[in-house]
Amino acid sequence: MSEVYAIRRTRLRECCNASGSAAALVSRPANVRYLAGAAPEGAVLLLGGTEDVLVCADPPDDRSPQSRPDESLRVHVTPGTGGDAAVAAAGLALTQGVDSLAVEEHHLTVTRHRALRSAAPRLRLAGIAGAVEQLRVVKDEEEISCLRIGAEIADQALGELLESILVGRTERHLALELERRLVDHGADGPAFPTSVATGPNAGRPGHRPTDRRVEEGDFLSVCLGATYRGYRCEIGRTFVIGTAPADWQIELYDLVFSAQRAGRESLVPGAACRDVDRAARHVLDSAGYGEALPVLTGHGVGLEIREDPQLTPAAMGKLDACVPVTVEPGVHLPGRGGVRIDDTLVVRPEADGGPELLTITTKELLAL
C-alpha cells in the first residue's frame, strides 16, 4: 500500500502547488487515513517541502499491519502530553524552509487556526477546500474490496437476525444484537448507529431505536452498516412481521421498490447525479408521495458513511466509474409506517456488467 499512499499524496501536492502552496497540512481524520494509512487519534499529515511527516501525540499502534500508518512516512511524536499535532506540524514546515502552507480550513476550528498563526507567523496559510475529499470520490479496487467485505458482513448479520424470533423484542434490543453480530463477523464496528423502526415508528425518517416491542402486522424497517478496515457501507430493508402483508403495505412496498430500481438502473458512468435522484423521485412523486420523500436519494460512501457525490435534486456533477454510492429512496407515513430500501452499489460501465450490487439481501417483501 505504500506506493498507493505515495501516489495519493503526489496528487494532492500537485493540487497545492498549482494553487501556490509549497506544503499542505491535512487534519481531517478520514483524509489523514486516506493519505497515510491508519493513524492515532488526532494525528495530522504534513506534506512538506522536503519530506512528508505524520505528526501525532501518541505513537502509532503497531500490533497489526491494519493499524499501522504507511511505513514510508516519518512519524513525529510531539513531546509531552496535550500538544496540538497541527501546531507541531506547522513548526516542522518552517524547519523545511516552507513559506506557505495549505490547510483544511473547512475542518480547522477558529481557535486552532489562530494557534497555527501564532506558532508560525511567517507561514502564509491558504486553503485547499475539499481537495482530498474530491480525490477520495473514485475508489481503487482495494478500497472497493473493503466495501464489498463490509457489505457481506452486514448482509450476514441481517440474515441471521431475520431467522430469529422477532415478536415481543424491542427495537433497541434488535439494534444492539445487529451491532454485536457485525463485530462477531469481522467488522471494525457499525458504520453508523443502527436504525430499527417498527409499526408507526417506521413512519419517522431517521428514527432511533426505542423500547417499543415488535408486534404482528408491523412494518419492520432496518438500516445498518459495517465498517471494515475503515471503509463503511450500508444496507436498509423493510419487512412485515408475523402475518401476510396488508394490501396497503404491499402497494407502498412495490412503489418504493420500483423507485429504488429506477435509481439503481440510472447508475452509469457519465450520468448526472441529479438525474439518478430524479429517476427514483419521479416514481414516488407521480404516485402522490412528493411531500413524504427524503431530501436525497443516495450518497457516496467510503472512509465516511456520507461522502460525495450527493444524489439530490440540486446536485452538480456526473458519476464516474468505480464510485460507490447508496440508492435509498423511502416513503414515511407519520403514525402509520413506512418503507425504505437501501443498497450500496459501485458505478460500473455496461461493458463490465453495469452497477455492481454489494448488498445482496433479498428485496422481496418478506413476512417474518
UniProtKB/TrEMBL annotation:
UniProt cross-references to Gene3D superfamilies, sorted A to Z: Creatinase/methionine aminopeptidase superfamily (3.90.230.10), Creatinase/prolidase N-terminal domain (3.40.350.10)
Source organism per UniProt: Streptomyces toyocaensis
Domain Peptidase M24: 146-348
Domain Creatinase N-terminal: 8-138
Signal sequence annotation: none
Chain segments carrying region Disordered: 190-211
One of the Pfam families matching this protein, by short name: Creatinase_N
InterPro entries: Creatin/AminoP/Spt16_N (IPR029149), Creatinase/aminopeptidase-like (IPR036005), Creatinase_N (IPR000587), Pept_M24 (IPR000994), Peptidase_M24B (IPR050659)
Stated name of the protein: X-Pro dipeptidase
